[in-house]
Amino acid sequence: MRFPKVCLEFLEHVRRLVQHVHSKTGSPVDVGEQMFLTILNVITSMMWGGTLKGDDRTKIGGEFKQVVSEMTALIGAPNVSDFFPSLARFDIQGIKKKIHVRFLRFDRIFDSMIEQCLKMEQGKEESHDSKDFLQLLLKLKDEENSKVPFTMNHLKALLMDMVVGGTETTSNTVEWGIAELMNNPETIRKAQEKLDRVAGKDKNVEESHLPQLHYLQSVMKEVLRLHPALPLLIPHCPSSSCTVGGYFIPKGARVFVNVWAIHRDPSIWVNPTEFNPDRFFNGKFDFSGNDFKYFPFGSGRRICAGIAMAERMVMYESATLLHLFEWNMPDSAKLNLDEKFGIGLKNNPVKGAGGSIGGAANLKRQKGSLGGNSSVPYRKNMEMTN
Ligand code: HEM
Question: What is the count of structural domains for the chain?
Fold first, then answer.
């Protein structure tokens, strides 16, 4: 499958992120929010970049951002119905009703995208031009001899999974990474040294450099060990009763896997609460989900569908921010990395709204400020204030 100009678009969105951070010289920057916007742009470019252009795309992007944020906050909000299923039909907190309203808004956006895409395709000869994800899915839907039914509802559900599952998880991971690194000056120095060696001191990081950035890969693994974006994965539900490790799990039970606790289990990890990327030295552990000591993307058939994309986005964006800017705390202060639990793990917003994927483990969202003069630097000074 070929996606149209995804790489170029991706670079363009990251470039815009850098410009934004740079333009904020001397004033606060909300790293999490900027990352969220960048990643949302990358994912929507991939989904319908070939269908929607210019002002239309900006307009839909803005509306989409709002619905995604509201949706992820609602999905993660603690819901009495989950703990007392007999009360579910009363929807005491009104969460189901609110989610339904957002579903309808998603549906309306998808309908208008699909209509536009179909109009574009009408009367066109079958071409070999690269297509966006939506165009490919519409083609798949029309294939009559397909053994697995693929309806319009399936198509919309897939688009929604990608956008809801891929945005905050990825942006929170980059944000936690920068925060952890800022509290560990030795680690940040080491990561920047390796970046200088691989990318060149006064050159941009390129996608082709990523496989050589072994230390940054260990940093990403360590960030996802301490702060798995979905600390309880996504709730699983067995289709038939079974026994696992001696425990009987009835059909239809809601199963939460506490990967957060496993990643901090002292019988598995030495000094589990310490941020130490070296524990992943030499490619130790991967994201395949085959080792139940470490599986931030889940495991088995329902493992994350976006691992390759997530890895690339987290690595490239972190590498770019670390290579271009100097990150440090004023007066050697430490960032507060407090967490708050829910389905998603994110930092506690200090200012502004920060819809988290759930009322999750949250660290304080910090504001960064760019110091120094406003000329484009090789590595600008970045400060975050508590
Ligand atoms: C650092 C970033 C990310 C993390 C940590 C992450 C983590 C996860 C986890 C833990 C699950 C549930 C697995 C399970 O329950 O066993 C999941 C599911 C999923 N993720 Fe991700 N994810 C990330 C980024 C992405 C991206 C970028 C996309 C796509 C654009 C994506 C698409 C999905 C989808 C579609 C599912 C549902 C898969 C299914 O139920 O079959 N994720 N992810």
Answer: 1
